[in-house]
Amino acid sequence: MMSRRGFSLVEVMVAASMSLLLMGVIWAGIKVLRTSTLNVNASQEPRKQLRAALGNLQKDLRQAAYLFPAGSYDLDNGDKIEIPAPGSTGDALAFAIPENSVSPILYTVVVVYTKPREKTDINNPKARTLVYLKATGVDPPTSDLPGEIDLETLPLSGGKKVFDAYLADSDGFVTEITNDYHAVRFAFHLRRQEARGELQQSNYQTTLALRNTI
């Protein structure tokens, strides 16, 4: 009867080396796949942010009853915005939405503007985000008219959203109020230079009329 010979040390070492090599190849493949997935997600994220910003702005503007007049405003979070005069263009907008129809009427105040991205991106150093501020339950001091509301004293920071949509530096968010203050034209321009050299761009523009102006 023949005895079974075990594996030699050399055979064991060769088998172990091949196993390690195979594991390395598999791990490298997983890393490549993961990196590719992350890159795809990163590429899609600005458009998702832009769609979210559009959805919020369209929904709120359709309910708005008052557009705040042109001028410079120092907000409670330290940011300064410039709302353009009717017929002119700018990158800021503020409006009020009535929350009820019986006196005393309370309002939701929305302020929208752009500012530079907080996170540094070497490929897009001038990209901007859309800042979306809200204050709810705002009661005008002496009447039901939203024109009495002081934007500069409102606690807007509590309802803050930031949409990282890689907006272009000069025309990423453009607003224009009609002369009668009954409608707003606005446009978005997403511009993102990817690390691989590809340029990602999206444009959107529309005009929304206020349903009930005050």
Number of strands: 11
Major beta sheet, strand line-up: 1-5-6-7-8
Shape: elongated
Low-confidence stretches: none
- Give the fraction of residues assigned to helices: 25-40%
- Main beta-sheet annotation: 5 strands, antiparallel
Question: Brief overview, please?
Answer:
The protein has 214 residues and is an alpha+beta fold.
Account of the protein in words:
The protein has 214 residues and is α+β, with helices and mostly antiparallel strands. It has one domain. The chain contains 1 helix and 11 strands; from the N terminus they run αβββββββββββ. The strands form 3 sheets. The chain has a 5-stranded antiparallel sheet with strand order 1-5-6-7-8, covered by helices on one side. The N and C termini lie far apart (105 Å). The model has no long low-confidence stretch (mean pLDDT 87).
Task: Give the secondary structure arrangement, pairings included.
Layout: H1 9-63, E1 66-67, E2 71-74, E3 80-83, E4 89-90, E5 92-98, E6 107-116, E7 128-138, E8 161-167, E9 173-177, E10 183-193, E11 199-209
Antiparallel strand pairs: 1-5, 2-3, 4-9, 5-6, 6-7, 7-8, 9-10, 10-11
Tags for this entry?
214 residues; alpha+beta
